[in-house]
Amino acid sequence: MIRHSNVSLSDLLKVDAAAGTLHFEHRRMLLLDADAMGLLRKELIEAVGLRQARRILLRFGYACGYRDALTTKGWHDTGDLTEWLSFGPKLHTLEGIVGVHLRHLHVDKNTGVFEADAEWRNSYEAEQHRVHLGMADAPVCWTLVGYASGYASAVFGREVRCSETYCVGKGDSHCVVMARAVGDGEESAGTLAMMNEDESTHVDLRGLHDTLDRYQKDLQREQALVSSLESRILSLQETLRTYSGAEELVGTSTVFRKVIQDVEQVAPSDVAVLICGETGTGKDMVARAIHARSGRSEHSLIIVNCAALPAGLVESELFGHERGAFTGAFKQKLGRFEIANGGTIFLDEVGELSLDAQVKFLRVLQEGELERVGGARTITVNVRILAATNQPLARLMAEGKFREDLFYRLNVFPLVVPPLRERPEDILLLAHYFTNRYRAKLKKPISSIDQRSIERLQQYYWPGNVRELQHMIERAVLLSESEVLTIDVPTFNGQHKPSSLPDHFNHSEGGPLKTLAEAERLHFEKVLRHTNGLITGKGGAADILNLPPSTLRHRMKKLGLK
Fold it and tell me: Quick one: which of 42, 49, 392, 507 has the fewest CB in 10 Å?
């Protein structure tokens, strides 16, 4: 039995430095930055609204308090509810969450009556709310209120209502919480429902307390509840992604942090953005992130894959058509630019547009005007333009396939998304990110990735980039029957890219070079990247290679270069 009068945090935690884990009894714990939690709170409120964020954080706090009470149950005499109950505030203080000063605590063991009020000092939640969101109109220590409710409810085996009457987050000098146990004859409206602005939303916790009675008989069975709560959190994360309308930009490497910085810098403006990068690098995710962070985020983001548009219907799809404009045009149709009016349009693989379509596209860029196919009326649109390509547009310009004036209008803010092989430190982060997503979606009990799979992931050359990694993880999770995920990482040309060889000995799509033709192809690719695809003229690829342009084009065709 633990007496908490002089207990310290180090007495409660077990640190395994070799494994990189921190445990409180059998539960793994984390040390989290308070400011990061404040930023998460801000993002959550902006994503789902104040009321829904409040519900989520209340539930999160309730789950934490509930589980802490179960963990500490065996440390106290079963009949000493006061001792067990008062350890919750002590634990919160030790964790640096909030300093708790109990002003009044009354527990009647015979009647089960419980009343308490406490002063909260230095609440991290009130502090972070004011830093990131400013002064509030109502109390904001939602996680703390949820924690107090969950902990006390576990101790009493029935619902305890907690409410914050004063809060630093709304300008009071200190925070005060009051609590009382719901009597056996009282009809519970639900602690969490009570804390909502609209109390007509009913959250019935009686089933949860029935579960608590069963789990208190055997603490080992608590693992089932823990698993259920973790799945619920992952499900909420998926819901938040749906609400936000954009995937996360996941990565901590230097090159990818530059992408994130560029997104944050350009998003608030209305300038055109040209997103360049190989297939599968996540150009569409970057476009979604720009839209989500822009002033147009409340309006539509229209995504157009130019490479997938039927050749004869490109202009109709983009600019619309009038009834009778051509055979089969039985009614008027709005184009994608009109549908995107007020919002953002993202043209993926913009280099695939025909020259005729490019002329009309340029007019939209310059004037904000278009005409439907078969129409004579000028239509004005207000659209933010984002475009993407995996081809060097400079090369297409040199070949007469892409208009120079359109290129320079699109290229106001070029943004390059690096291939996955240039950000190897992000591979493991992305692997865990996708594993967490699909284990929740597919309801798989996966807890980790096996070490051999991690090594192979880091050695692989990733010709398909992030999209290839995502699909590989999804398939592995789908087929997994174990808590440890094994990933079948394929080989490329019979082997992984050898990390010990210099880059100029490796093919740009993986595998070591063995022939003169492969070496020539690689050298041509390097020169073309250097010239941004430009073949002719001063400083062009032909000039650098000292070859006639016609000869260079012939060799490129022979080597399969475009």
Answer: 49
Architecture label for domain 254-416: 3-Layer(aba) Sandwich (3.40)
Handedness of CA 258, 261, 262, 263 (dihedral sign): positive
CA gap 497, 520 in Å, rounded: 19
Cα 26 from Cα 258, distance rounded (Å): 40
Instruction: Give me the amino acid identity at 221.
Output: R
CATH architecture of 513-559: Orthogonal Bundle (1.10)
Amino acid identity at 509: E
Question: Residue 245: its pLDDT value, please?
Answer: 42
Contacts of 466 (CB under 8 A, 6+ apart): 280, 281, 282, 420, 430
CATH 3.40.50.10490 assigned to domain 420-485? The reply is no
Least confident stretch, 70-79, 218-227, 352-361, 453-462: 218-227
Give the count of beta carbons closer than 10 Å to the beta carbon of residue 229. Answer: 17
Beta bridge partners of 180: 115, 161
- pLDDT for 285 equals 93
- Residues 139-154, mean pLDDT to the nearest whole number: 91
Identify whether the C-beta of residue 93 lies closer than 8 Å to the C-beta of residue 8: no
Alpha-carbon Rg of the chain, whole angstroms?
A: 30
Mean pLDDT of the chain, nearest integer:
80
Say whether domain 9-243 belongs to CATH 2.60.40.3710: no
Contact present, 424 and 275 (Cβ < 8 Å): no
